[in-house]
Amino acid sequence: MLAPQMLGISIILPFIAAALCLINVPTLRSALVIGTGVVVSLASLLLVQSGTFSLTPESILGINPDGLIAVLDFALLFVILGIAYRLKNKLIAGLTLLQIVPLAVLELFMNPGENMGPALYVDQFSMIMCMVISIVGSLICLYGLPYMREHEHHLKLEKSKQGRFFFFMVLFLGAMNGLVFSNNLLWLYFFWEVTTLCSFMLIKHDGTEIAVKNATRALWMNMLGGVAFVFALIIFRSQGLPLSLQEIITAESASKLALLPVGLLCFAGFTKAAQMPFQSWLCGAMVAPTPISALLHSSTMVKAGVYLVIRLAPAFAGTLFSNYVALFGAFTFLAAAVLALSQSNGKKILAYSTISNLGMIVACAGINTPAAISAAVLLIVFHAISKALMFLCVGSIEQKIGSRDIEDMRGLVDIMPRTTMMAALGMVTLFLPPFGALLSKWMAVEASAHLPLVVIMLALGSALTMVFWGRWLGMIMTSVVPDKVLPTERMPLFFSVPLWTLAVSAVVISFTAPGLYTSMVLPVLERFYSADLYTAARGVISNNIGMFAIYPVFVVMALGVIYAVRASSAKRFFRRGDYVTPYVCGLQDPADPRRLGFKGPLGVWSEFKTTNYYMENIIGESRITGWINLIAIGILIILLAGVF
Amino acid sequence: MDFKTFSFVILAVILAPFAGGLLAGIDRRLTAWFQGRSGPPILQPFYDVIKLLGKDRQVVNYWQIFCVHIYLISSVLCVALFAMQADLLMIFFVMTIGAVFMVVGAMAVPSPYSQLGAQRELIQMLTYEPLLIIVFVGIYLVTGSFKIDDILSYERPIFLMLPLLYLVLTFALTIKLRKSPFDISTSHHAHQEVVRGVLTEYSGPYLAILEIAHWYEIVLILAICGLFWSTSWIGLVLLLALTYMAEIVIDNVTPRMTWKWMLTYVWAVGISLSFFNMALLYANSF
User: Fold this and answer.
1) Phi and psi dihedrals of A451, rounded to 5?
2) Which chain A residues touch B114 with a CB distance below 8 Å?
3) Would an 8 Å CB–CB cutoff place A555 in contact with chain B?
4) Which of A37, A202, A332, A446 has its Cβ near the most Cβ atoms within 10 Å?
5) Residue B17 pLDDT more than 70?
6) Which of A432, A435, A469, A472 would you mutate first to test chain B, the one with the most B CBs within 10 A?
7) Is residue A239 very low, low, confident or very high in pLDDT (cuts 50, 70, 90)?
8) Three-state DSSP class for B110?
9) Is the residue at A106 inside a domain?
10) Average pLDDT for A448-455
11) CA nearest neighbour of A379 among A356, A359, A361
12) B201/A449 Cβ within 8 A
């Protein structure tokens, strides 16, 4: 089979294409982005055809790969040190040195290659990740082409910075693919740091003061994770364990394994996945242009963090540490949902919802039963698709209406009917059954049922999630009696292709969830767990404590939607003259009943305005973030103490 | 699905609205009796719905109509899934579809009453949803399953193990029944400050559809209450009758409260009661 070639393409091609993107020519750039996207997506799909395999490349372009990675590692760290010098940031410089020195010790004195298994390991979990990264990531890059043109047009830049922009975007995809396939922890660490650097450069892309500030914060928080990562490697070596991920999580070595390095790796995962108290870097990343936010939030970066935690889950199954991880994740889930409720800034809502979902994934890794791990893996997939869709919609909306405040999105359906429908679909697939994200939530709640504190946090967070999505969904649909002509909307080709693809796959992949589970999730679980696995038969996913009938609910709801669409045909209402104006106690303007407002006392016209409850005086961001961070740090300390 | 389950589902879907309507009629008669009036005939809810169905359509936009239908379909689906003895938590999530779309329908109309009602309805959902999940978790802790067929085969009434969680469930029931003190987003009496709140913009046949969907929902919640004494018919009927009677009494003796009070009170009391009950379970298992 061509599997090793496909693997090579998915990692190396983005690196080459990214370098070529630096030649700042628009047509070449478009060709590169589209070409890489198509090839990498196809490679990821072809890769799925093969089974689990591992691989150690003998040489890359004639160079010993381990040596190459080691050199690149140091090069990367010195680049970051240079950045720290330019930013005059002692913290980042210190954190970088804290990685350079131990890494040098590790490379020189601790014989890192001893008993090393294969450098790359491919199983169904990394294949799923690769598909998410390659396909969703490429679609976002595609969307970036017209978006960045418009963005730079709007900023009136003299010299285009798009070459650099797409360099880092495409590089990101390669680094992520490398990350999920690496079995050698040194390789994983290299790709890990590449994503840190890429996200820093992308967040500060616009070069404004706030962009630099937020990028700096993202950098130091992620470097903190990097430090934990290096120290974990040192501890592994000092215990005489090989730096091989598969070696560490398999049962034979798990018994002699101290939890401390695993805990440190999880800590690195938490920083990258923006768990509380590190959520601020991901929220700050919102200053970047939308394709960047979309990339960071859906298919890359944060998913790297949760990927590592889930990968490590078998190594800490059944420990107290595991329960603390569940508690930590559940707290992030709840706290981020509370913060999302207090926001009217659309992108902030998306950001907190991402953090909340990541919290759920981490909680699932901590619950550490096969049901919970299935929930985590499926949630990664479904969240990536729907969240990418949401970000791309909000990006288009922002470019059109000039605001990202959801209060300004009232009546959006009259201005951008297609984008509104896509956004509505994105929201519905994120929080309502029978779609995949909710399926994962259902699995998570059932799996956590034996941990009262965790399940109560999940229940509260889940209700909050429903509120902030529900009201946003309602707001964009608000409209008054339309005129005779129904509104239409034109979308650029590279907007509509990613949006349509994501929207269709959000629905279709949800429908095929049982198949996805059986073919891609179950084989991974069977390696580590023998009891209580979900089985998927005839569209029903079930285990000994619960069952979710996906096909029946899907079919009934699909028929229901078709019926409801027919029953609410706008044209028929026109024809029959059923339209009326909203009820305002009969005090509307007699001349123009469509105008919203009241004829008040003495015939004075008064407008009215309705807004959501944001409860900012109770749960506003500035009010409770400090407390949330405090609690999160507390849980984190207990958690890390739990490794001893 | 075998023939027996299938006929059971069909029967439930057909009979549920009749049961719901009848219950609403009895409710109105009893309330009238409490208040010293004679009240309407017991079949009055059906007369109302039939009359509404025959009225002219009045629509502000097509979205609200779409949403009404989704609400109805999800409510019917929930009852069907319950009759199939499916997973409780799944049924709950399917019920959320309807609840959310009812709010979306109300928010799709720029009328201040319907908007405000929708916001309050969201708060009501926020109040009862976590409690329902916790109740289901409690049922799981006792019976070891979320599946209704397993729960029904548990040999003792689970009410005996989960008395406090049953109380928590009745909070959700009160909110769903739109009874005082929780009739905040809309009430049965149209003379409140938000007119009819979340229902303001619905009239004629669409209001009738909402009413029918509501009956389905009430039947579903009462069926969930019934699970708590599923071992004997007498126990079940007695439990449901007592519960509903208590609802009517509470409705009559309490005023409508604000959403802030509802959220803080119900969450605080509900979650504490749940914790107590779970602690009780753990103590029992020793």
Assistant:
1) -115, 90
2) 582-583
3) no
4) A332
5) yes
6) A432
7) confident
8) coil
9) no
10) 91
11) A361
12) no
**If we measure between CA atoms, which residue out of A424, A518, A503 comes closest to residue A469?**
A424
* C-alpha to C-alpha distance for A523 and A516, rounded to whole angstroms: 11
Domain total of chain A: 1
φ, ψ dihedrals at A587, nearest 5°: -105, 25
Which of B62, B69, B95, B191 is best to mutate for the A interface (most A CBs within 10 A)?
B62
Interchain pair A578, B86: CB under 8 A: no
Bridge partner list, B258: none
Q: Enumerate residues 204 to 233 of chain A having a beta carbon within 8 A of any beta carbon in chain B.
A: none
Nearest to B77, CA basis, from A471, A436, A433, A463: A433
What DSSP state is assigned to residue A565? H
What is the separation, in whole angstroms, between the first and last Cα of chain B? 40
| Residue from the list B62, B94, B96 with its beta carbon closest to the beta carbon of A570 | B62
Residue A633 lies in a domain: no
Q: Which residues of chain B does A456 touch, with a Cβ-Cβ cutoff of 8 Å?
A: 130, 134, 271, 274
| B78: nearest CA partner in chain A | A553
| pLDDT higher than threshold 60 for residue B99 | yes
Residue A360 pLDDT > 90: yes
Question: What are the φ/ψ torsions at residue B223 (nearest 5 degrees)?
Answer: -65, -40
For the segment A22-35, the average pLDDT, to the nearest whole number, is 88
Question: What does the pLDDT look like over A554-576, one tens digit per residue?
Answer: 999 999 999 999 988 877 877 78
Q: Which A-chain residues 514-553 have CB contacts (< 8 A) with chain B? A: 544-549, 553
- Contacting residues for B130 by C-beta, under 8 A, at least 6 apart: A456, A459, A460, A462, A463, B267, B270, B271
- What is the C-alpha separation between A76 and A72, in angstroms, rounded? 6
In this complex, do A462 and B97 lie within 8 Å of one another by their Cβ atoms?
no
Interface of A with B in 401-440 (CB under 8 A): 410-411, 413, 431-434, 438
Chain A residues inside the 8 Å CB shell of B125: 463, 466-467, 470
How many residues does this entry show for chain B?
A: 286
CB-nearest partner of B104 from A477, A573, A608:
A477
Contacts of A117 (CB under 8 A, 6+ apart): A54, A183, A184, A242, A244, A246, A247
> How many domains does chain B contain in total?
1
- How many residues does the structure list for chain A? 644
Start-to-end Cα distance in chain A = 45
Residue A232 lies in a domain: no
pLDDT for position A621:
85
Instruction: Give the residue numbers spanning the domain of B84.
Output: 3-285
Write out the residue range of the structural domain in which residue A525 sits: 313-579
Q: At what angle do helices B3-34 and B44-53 cross, to 10 degrees?
A: 110
C-alpha angle A156/A416/A396, rounded to 5°? 35
CB contact under 8 A, B96 and A466: yes
Peptide bond into A434 cis (omega under 30): yes
* Dihedrals phi, psi of B257, to nearest 5 degrees: -105, 180
Query: What's the burial of A160, exposed, middle or buried (CB within 10 Å: 0-12/13-18/19+)?
Result: middle
Assign A374 a pLDDT band (cuts: 50, 70, 90): very high
C-alpha pair distances (Å), A63 with each of A67, A71, A112, A517 = 8, 11, 18, 40
* Least CB–CB distance from B87: residue in A548, A557, A570: A548
Residues 364-393 of chain A whose Cβ lies under 8 A from any Cβ of chain B: none
A351-361 mean pLDDT:
94
- SS3 at position A543: coil
Give dist(CA A324, CA A636) in Å, integer. 8
Q: What is the pLDDT of residue A218?
A: 92
Under DSSP, the state recorded for A540 is E
CA distance B166 to B170: 6
Asked whether residue A447 is assigned to any structural domain, the reply reads yes
In this predicted model, what pLDDT tens digit does every residue of B149-196 receive, in sequence order?
A: 999 999 889 999 999 999 999 999 999 888 888 888 887 776 677 778
